[in-house]
Amino acid sequence: MAGKIIADTIETGAGADISTSYVVNGSAKAWVNFNGTGTIAARDSLNVASLTDNSTGDYKVNYSNSFSNDDYSATVSANSSSGLIGTLESEATMLTGSTEVNTYGGSISKSDHAVVCLQTLGDLA
Questions:
Q1: Which residue range forms the structural domain that includes residue 114?
Q2: Structural domains counted in the chain
């Protein structure tokens, strides 16, 4: 039998009350940890339908459940012994159903990385 829990607050073990809206609004709505080299593949994820390898250091993360608008917050990171990380392609590529991610190497050119991570927060549609 399916059911639901309705609550306005959650009480911590120390007796402090936390609004459920704080918990819901502050939780990641999608995240992924994937191998960005060779044939890309997710190691683990939440709300990620698929990954697309557009070209060297250029990936697209496609969501299972879309965001309500394209004003969500996204953070990307990648491992690199040469110093650089990952970035979002541009605001134009933060769409309700996907986010495009770029990763760079020490020469400031796009390069593939063994570990790429994306976390997104916002309202789902």
A1: 28-121
A2: 1
pTM over 0.85: no
Give the model confidence (pLDDT) of 58-88 as tens digits.
999 999 999 999 999 999 988 866 655 677 7
Residue 22, C-beta contacts closer than 8 angstroms, at least 6 positions apart: none
Could you tell me if residue 85 is inside a domain? yes
Cα–Cα distance measured from residue 95 to residue 109, given in angstroms and rounded to the nearest whole number: 24
The residue with tokens 């044939």 is 39
Running DSSP on this structure, what letter comes out for residue 110?
Answer: B
Cα separation of 123 and 125, whole Å?
7
Say which residues have a Cβ less than 8 Å from residue 72's Cβ, sequence separation at least 6.
Answer: 29, 94, 120, 121, 122, 123
Q: Nearest 5°: phi and psi at 49?
A: -85, -40
Tokens 């608008």 belong to which residue? 69
Q: Is residue 12 a part of any domain in this protein?
A: no
Examine residue 14 and state whether it is found in any structural domain, yes or no: no
Tokens of 44: 């683990």
In a domain, 13, yes or no: no
